[in-house]
Amino acid sequence: MNPAENLRSEAVAVPSAAYRARLLAMLERVCANCRAEPDPVATVLEHLRRFWHPWLRQALTALDAQERAQASETARQVLERLDAG
């Protein structure tokens, strides 16, 4: 199995804590890069829609309350919008 398939299978099933931590770190980098935008949450959501595979976005919704509490305010707002669909 190639590494990309392994990541996909993790994301589709139950992502491990380490995988969720990597996803959150990636989300935080996107949020940091978009913080100067007029609407950073909308900009991050658009970035995720355009450049992240759906199973990566779905895996973000698997973050538990403790992981979400560690996220920045922008990242938490993005996660809430992803949860809402």
UniProtKB/TrEMBL annotation:
It comes from the Bacteria. It comes from Tepidiphilus thermophilus. This is NADH-dependant formate dehydrogenase delta subunit FdsD.
